[in-house]
Write a structure and sequence with these properties.
Blueprint (H helix, E strand, L loop, with lengths): L2 H24 L9 H5 L13 E2 L7 E2 L2 E2 L8 H10 L5 H13 L5 H9 L6 H11 L5 H8 L7 H26 L14 H9 L7 H12 L8 H11 L4 H12 L7 H15 L6 H13 L17 H13 L4 H20 L10 H10 L8 H23 L11 H8 L4
Antiparallel strand pairs: 1-2, 2-3
Helix pairs in contact: 3-18, 4-8, 5-6, 6-8, 6-12, 7-8, 8-9, 8-18, 9-10, 10-15, 10-18, 11-12, 11-18, 12-18, 13-17, 14-16, 15-17
């Protein structure tokens, strides 16, 4: 039995017992109240889900299985996936076993490339990526095992198999789409013995003489791995998976949500704004000019992309990690220099304005600038990078939810007429 599966098999009985005991003793305890505004406002802040893989406390930022993301920035994505699934980081032997397992599953079926090649040449990279995942559904081991008949307490095993099969192939698929969609030349084969993110960087074909771009990919895939359970992509994946749809159906559905402009587009918008400012001022602007430009932007009714967050009330630790990387490797790059300058100036402007609940930068304020520096300038592709990483979080949540027997999601909806009667309006 593979180390990851063996570790999960040992932990799952305790998880089930803990949840069963908690539910039996405190199942009637109220944990949230819902207002009319929340019902109309996308259920923001309503505590109605359980996600043990990660949490995002407003004053701390992303915490993965009890470990702040800042403490994980030097880990490999494979280590993070092991952590997400099991609650513990793998030792060296376990990491190597997982890497070997992923490498053995990495070959992409030939029909996937045929499907992608048949799509219109100017298809959006995210549409191509989601389609590639969905068309592999015929490979689902969960679907085959379910059709053959299995006990509910065994559902997690083939879900894990599907997740490993899928994750193993995502770097090659994502890199192949990049090279196909943007006419970069033939696909590049994976290199034996190279880690998951390192191979992704290699297969993209970005020039990387010092190995810095590969290090950025490792960092990028770690930082975007998960973000609790209520965001659009995670929640959609969970909802679809709760119907016992396999990982291919569920992850593809989740990534369709990630493709939405309000979810996965932020890093593109931040980079576009930074490039616009850089061009407007010819790559050189004083702190006072930037301060005035920020005020002009706000006074015109616009926002400063990358600043503020729906949950956080601090500088996003993931921004700190990207900022540190950029200032270490290319502090004199004009775009990176502007990112740093905006970080020094804009929070003060937003605090002075007094309207922003969170005046600090989020992860998107820096990530695009780093990609742009290394020559990955095709901004419509950036959400695919996000997707390769976030698939780890979605898959781990699918596995855990099947392990603990999470039921199908079915919240109760109400009508506007019901809300009016409940609040006494028009009575």
């Amino acid at each position: 039995m593979a180390v990851l599966k063996k570790t999960l098999a040992a932990k799952i009985p305790d998880w089930r017992q803990e949840i069963s005991a908690l539910n039996k003793a405190h199942g009637a305890t109220v944990i949230s109240e819902v207002t009319v505004s929340q019902a109309y406002g996308g259920a923001r802040g309503v505590k109605s889900m359980v996600c043990d893989t990660s949490e995002v406390p407003p004053e701390h930022g992303l915490i993965v299985r009890g470990i702040p993301i800042a403490q994980l920035k030097n880990k490999l994505p494979e280590e993070i996936f092991f952590l997400l699934c099991t609650g513990e980081l793998p030792d060296r032997k376990s990491l190597e076993a997982l890497q070997e397992d992923l490498a053995a599953r990495a070959k992409v079926p030939a029909y996937v490339w045929k499907v992608l090649e048949a799509m219109p040449p100017k298809s959006h990279p995210m549409c191509m990526f989601d389609t590639a995942i969905l068309c592999m559904q015929r490979e689902s081991k969960f679907q085959k095992a379910y059709d053959a008949g299995m006990r509910k307490d065994e559902y997690w095993d083939p879900m894990l198999e599907d997740s490993l099969d899928m994750l193993a192939k995502l770097p090659a698929i994502a890199a192949g789409i990049y090279r196909m969609r943007f006419k970069k030349g033939p696909r590049i084969a994976a290199k034996k013995g190279l880690d998951w993110a390192g191979n992704y960087a290699r297969m993209l074909g970005i020039k990387d003489p010092k190995g810095e771009f590969a290090d950025l990919m490792r960092l990028y895939l770690v930082l975007h791995c998960d973000h609790e359970g209520g965001n659009v992509s995670a929640h959609t994946c969970h909802c679809v998976g709760s119907a016992l749809s396999d990982a291919y159906y569920a992850v593809s559905a989740g990534l369709n949500g990630l493709a939405g402009p309000l979810h996965g587009l932020a890093n593109q918008e931040c980079l576009s704004w930074t490039l616009e400012v850089n061009e407007k001022f010819g790559g050189q602007l004083s702190d006072e000019q930037l301060r005035k430009f920020a005020w002009d932007t706000l006074n015109s009714g616009k926002v400063i992309p990358g600043y503020g967050h729906a949950v956080l009330r601090i500088t996003d630790p993931r921004f700190d990690a990207f900022h540190e990387f950029g200032m270490k490797h290319f502090p004199d790059d004009p775009v990176m220099r502007l990112v740093d300058q905006v970080f020094r100036i804009v929070p003060g402007v937003l605090k002075e304005q007094g309207k922003a609940k969170d005046p600090w930068p989020n992860v998107d304020a820096a990530s695009g600038a780093l990609l742009y520096h290394y020559g990955l300038i095709e901004q419509s592709y950036y959400t695919v990078l996000f997707s390769v990483s976030r698939a780890m979080g979605m898959c781990s949540q699918l596995v855990v939810n099947r392990a603990i027997g999470t039921p199908i999601e079915r919240p109760k909806s109400v009508t506007t007429a019901w809300l009016k009667s409940k609040t006494g309006v028009g009575g």
